[in-house]
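Data availability (excerpt). All sequences and predicted token strings are deposited with the supplementary files. A representative entry, Nucleoside-diphosphate-sugar epimerase, is shown inline so that the format can be inspected without opening the archive.
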Amino acid sequence: MHVFVTGGTGLVGAAVVAELLGNGHAVLALTRSEASAAAAAAAGAEPLHGALDDLDVIRAGARKADGVIHLAFGNDFSTADAVARSVAEETAAITAIGETLIGTGRPFVIVSGTPWVPGRHSVETDPVPTDGPVGGRGRTVTTTLQLAAQGVRTSAVRLPRTVHRDGDGGFAGLLTRIARDSGVAGYPGDGAQRWPAVHALDAAVLFRLALENAPAGTVWHAVADEGDRVSDIATVVGRRLGLPARPVPEEAFGPLGPIFATDQPSSSAHTRAALGWTPRHPSLLADLENIRP
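Structure token line:
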């Protein structure tokens, strides 16, 4: 299959591109810079120069492909306005791809986040949140999955808040960067809230399986660790950096503070059973041992 991938040189995207190429697929990768183009080419993908807001380029990439995996996101969480801009940019790109694929029967795999449900682990049948700092992403995913009724084999792979590799990535990576800047491996509240996690290489396998096999309009959970206590994550981060681990105000985490403070364990039991997905790479707490002081 000839697959158009956005975000193909990021932490998750690079793993997805390698997984696709290693399983006989060809990849057309959207690349924003010369460095990204060089990285994509070195991996064996064909670069397509353009940014996420270059909608004509996005549409052209989708038209050329047998399937699409969308992974790109602005990832600027510095302010609420920055998050809103990233969400709006992503929504426009996903909408453009979806409209291009209507009536083709081609697969379109989009990325989402695992939801949180008070008192229990979230599962694949739970809806994603459509309010809060990144609620717009939930609304876009929900709308895009409905394109199954218009001849697009849509599916959503829900990533946990931490997708990690070599001690970095996701919310745990943000905690690490904040700790380096502040001198404290902090966590909001009492740290008992739980975050699910997955290794990037395991997540990549699930994206491939969804591309190849997922029925239209379906949702999948890329969850390996169902929920690590945030205080345990901060403890490892602090030990690796030689910093104290202790509670800090929720506001220290900017617009993501409310999400950081939320208990959000998640299950992937249905995904494992239905698609035969089996995570095999190190857990989050084990991988954080790779943080360099």
